[in-house]
């Protein structure tokens, strides 16, 4: 019987297979032919294994007795080096035959076979190198560095051995290196370079050279620096210099899987740690896709030239395409995400799925394809222990492979294989085709116009595209095209810009203010052009380009953020940006990761990057309408809480290192204003007060002790300094500490006792207003509870209603006279009559006037919670409460929209604004808090209101 893929005249292939199996089994001793079905399956699938069983019948006997047992490794006698090759080869054959047996018996899956092949290669390398090192030490001594310390060879494995996924009969890609220069200390000394070159060549020969027993492992040294033209072994310093000056994209892929497998492994790991910046760039590295395109083109040319369509490794939809796809995505993101730096393919594919860089469907399909193809690859090589990846042409071999894999014939196997390879080819093609597909809808006239600049091009093209200010936009674009940052671009970068600009132009034409949008885009591009990786990101990722253009045209604030910190482009690619916003626990975990850094500078940089990324994500969700403004303000406050908590820990570490710690003395940071009320704005500063609780005579227990007050004062100073320190990733927050007791003349940090006395005896009404929204945002739990008791005592005491109303109304009138920036037809959302501060004053007066009889008013800090508590206490009727909630949401949304577009929070009057103001004003008047008189008296010693030191202690969440 012949199959549709068998050539004419193939004959009765199944009968030929039966005859072949009979002949193979006849070669084995009768005593071990009791192997039954497993032995027959081996005879079908592996001439190599039958050959081993015939030459070493004890191997088959051992498998029949216990298939889990490993053949014992050989002892390489120093006195008999001529026997080493045979011992290694016979042992490798025995272990490999065991892998064949276990595979065909169904005892191992493909992962176990790859693990077994990897371990076997490492063991052979270790045995061979140990024997040769002893031999070389006897002849030439041991290499020692300038300090007299011994230096050993480091054997790096690249490729599948480095990745721990060696196929059955693969060669092994090795690179030799050594940590430092020196000379051997024997009777015939050699310089380190010559010593290790000779040792490396001897190792390759011992493993690779064919003998009567075959080979142990084929060794390929061509991946070393400079390839065959390079030295066999290089020092680490020479290796580092090579990668800095000569390293190419394909070498980044190769060294991605590098692993020390023999010799001085600890030194090898140190070198790989130093090489990490070469392999994984710190930024999103979409430039790696250009290297992948070149490699793909070279592979395609090789496939066409050598007719490798049936090559399941290099051909279309083959193993290499899965490897390249996973490795490319690792290279792109691994610099930012350490979890993507692994060597093994399937775990990294799962990590990419977890990071949402590969869809679950694609990840599952690729993982299954990889298992199918690697299993088939192993079976092709098990047939005759040949390093092959090509599907066989001979009908008998085809049937043997098919039957060994459980298929009736070759057609059945081919039917299973075709869709697997098609899936791989589709996924791999999609990785590199996104760029070109996104350009398909770009107007050709726009593209032509851009390429003709600065000297050619017609502004009429811009008018036709929809630009409202075509002349001014044209002038801005010509200036940009003439600028040195564009003129001096490399050919590759200019080609990327020529692909990106038409897309951005076409997308920005419909903007409300196209000229302003274009100026923002050009300012951003000026910064990006200095960083080729970011231009590559926009070129390779159409989704990021579309998001960026939309963001820049709608938000001046976010455009400035991206221009100043292009790393934020990462957020435009993160699929999580469209999903649920991170919760408080997730924000805490992301910020706390900075504490893993040992150095303060690195920790601050990492924390800044995290804060930038999360605040950007929050702002983008607000801009897109996926997050309500009040929810955005709450999340920004949570983020600030987490950042301050991390900074407190960093500052505490520094203080403890220098002065020890103050035993049994808790510390806390109190957030006032919009931070305390969980209504923080984008770009807002933080109103902070610092507390501690220690005995009067307490001091720190370090080598340079400080008394408690000085210790905590320095701690607070460090916290303020660290929050305001500028790093390459920006600055965390501006801090305002003027709301502490006694304001600017008071101590930076207060003891709990002093703070309680101040709030109970000397604080003004406006300071108690500020205390309404205050909450502990970081510090020790015991002091948090103590602060709550102090706050409750200060706010919950009985007050004279008339005096309270006079104080609150008077202060509000004074503030409005100084700070209201509204004018005829324009309204100040924060300070105007019926604005956010009026609402704050209303709620603060509600708490101060009624907390003594309604203690539930003390719990909430946020506006919506205070309104709800007022309604529950019967102090606000349902209609009033509902109207105030709506008014608050409307004013915050208006203010945030203006902040995002860098516009003043002064808005024209309108129906919705009028309704919000009316609700707040009516509630104020009903409460007797009409603050229309700017001449209302202020308490003696009250500071002049200005910005963040406003008596309310709050700044609106804008």
Automatic annotation (TrEMBL):
Domain spans labelled PII-uridylyltransferase/Glutamine-synthetase adenylyltransferase: 293-431
Region annotation (Adenylyl removase) ranges: 1-436
Domain of life: Bacteria
Domain named Glutamate-ammonia ligase adenylyltransferase repeated: residues: 38-273, 546-789
Key words of the record: ATP-binding, Ligase, Magnesium, Multifunctional enzyme, Nucleotide-binding, Nucleotidyltransferase, Transferase
Comp. bias intervals (Low complexity): 944-958
Top EC class for this record: transferase
Region (Adenylyl transferase): 443-958
Cofactor(s) the record lists: Mg(2+)
E.C. numbers: 2.7.7.89, 2.7.7.42
Region: Disordered, residue numbers: 930-958
Molecular function, one GO term: ligase activity
InterPro entries: GlnE (IPR023057), GlnE_rpt_dom (IPR005190), NT_sf (IPR043519), PII_UdlTrfase/GS_AdlTrfase (IPR013546)
Catalytic activity from the UniProt record: [glutamine synthetase]-L-tyrosine + ATP = [glutamine synthetase]-O(4)-(5'-adenylyl)-L-tyrosine + diphosphate; [glutamine synthetase]-O(4)-(5'-adenylyl)-L-tyrosine + phosphate = [glutamine synthetase]-L-tyrosine + ADP
Record's function text: Involved in the regulation of glutamine synthetase GlnA, a key enzyme in the process to assimilate ammonia. When cellular nitrogen levels are high, the C-terminal adenylyl transferase (AT) inactivates GlnA by covalent transfer of an adenylyl group from ATP to specific tyrosine residue of GlnA, thus reducing its activity. Conversely, when nitrogen levels are low, the N-terminal adenylyl removase (AR) activates GlnA by removing the adenylyl group by phosphorolysis, increasing its activity.
Family: Belongs to the GlnE family.
Annotated protein name in UniProt: Bifunctional glutamine synthetase adenylyltransferase/adenylyl-removing enzyme
Lineage: Bacteria, Pseudomonadati, Pseudomonadota, Gammaproteobacteria, Lysobacterales
